[in-house]
Amino acid sequence: MTGPGTPTRAAKKEERGEGGEELTELHRRYGAPLLAYFSKRLRGSGDPDDLVQEVFVRLARRGDIGNIRQLEGYIFQTAANILRDRARRRSARREDDHVSFVEEIHGNEDLSPERVLLGREAAHEMLAALRELPPRTRAIFVLRRLEGCRYAEIAGRLGISASSVEKHMAKALAHLAKWSDRI
Prior knowledge:
Blueprint: H1 9-15, H2 20-42, H3 48-62, H4 71-92, H5 103-106, H6 113-132, H7 135-146, H8 151-158, H9 162-182
């Protein structure tokens, strides 16, 4: 029976340096197949070496590797679980929606108070230009440009033809182009 502060069998084994050879042998035997397994499934969206390492970290935490009957199956089931956990984390964090900051693309300019003020003024002027549009034209512009709806979807929502949606969009874009020339 173990209590708080009492080392587990795996911890005692680790302290004595036992089990390291067993993990080293498993890594020698299964490292390359696991690397191939992860590489095939990741297709460039991650580092397979990190995932191979995670398999062996989980095996080391488990401790009693010698008691596993179907070791190869257990190792690859652990690998599959790691992929599922990774996919769940990526989905929960919406990682695919993130854009990495690249200085060459995004620039490295500081946001000075003057620049912030100019941006706010431009946004207010743009909103004023949008308010000048007829309500239906403005709604179509917002649905298309801000909400990303397709013309057919907008037409269905508003009960008009897709060609009417196109005409309203052209009218909105022409109005905003005139507005941008005024600045």
